[in-house]
Structures are given as C-alpha cells and as structure tokens.
Amino acid sequence: MKDFGELMKSADWKTEKHAPVIECADEVAADQAITVTASVGKEIAHPNTTAHFIAWIELYFLPEGGQFPYQIGRAEFSAHGASAQGADSSGVYTNPSVTVSFKTETSGTIYATSYCNVHGLWKNAREITVK
Length: 131
Prior knowledge:
Helix content: under 10%
Radius of gyration: 16 Å
Structural class: mainly beta
Number of domains: 1
CATH class: Mainly Beta
Strand content: 35-45%
Number of strands: 8
Strand order of the largest sheet: 2-8-7-4-5
Shape: globular
C-alpha cells in the first residue's frame, strides 16, 4: 500500500499547469496579517472544463518546529461549464484561486495542495519568516 504522501505530485509551476502557486510576502512582522494566494494555472492555464478541472485547493501552515500543520483555508470550485444542456454549455467556469489571511508569531512553511479530476493530487510549499 502506498503512503498518501507518495500520491502527491510536485513540479515547478512555471512548467506544469497542475502545481499550485503560492504567493505571499517572504517576511512579515509578528503582529501583521499574512495574505496568501494559491492558484493553479498561473503560467500555463488549466482547462477547467466539465471533463478536466481543478476541484479544490487547500492551504496549510506548519510553524517552525511544529509537529502538525494548521489548515488555514480551503476552496472548492464547482462551475466547470456544465448545465442542463450538457457539458461545457453554460459558459461559467471557475478560476482555481483562493486568498486567505492569517496571523502567526512563528516562522514556518505554507503548503498548498490541489486536486485535478484527471491528474490527481498536487502540492507546493513556501517558507515565510516572521520577525
């Protein structure tokens, strides 16, 4: 049996349309809110059609020296062009992007995961420093 972590793929988001992109400040003050945006398809657009779409993005924060990550956000994307008239007929397509804001007094790592219904689970990470 495979470990769940082995099922998650990663890649440079500049060459792979499925890897989540994490955008945030590299350094923040302990009393400052950190705004984090995670998206899929920044450099290479993901199709987001009825047959091939990003279903969700989750964001986690693992404090430096911490044992468990904290979930700081989750977004589900439900509009993939489907309607009562059939696949890709509505003209409504969700853009897979989520923005959250949180505070922490500890430096650590932000993790983003995403799920493509055709290509599976993807991950990325970015370190932040709290001063």
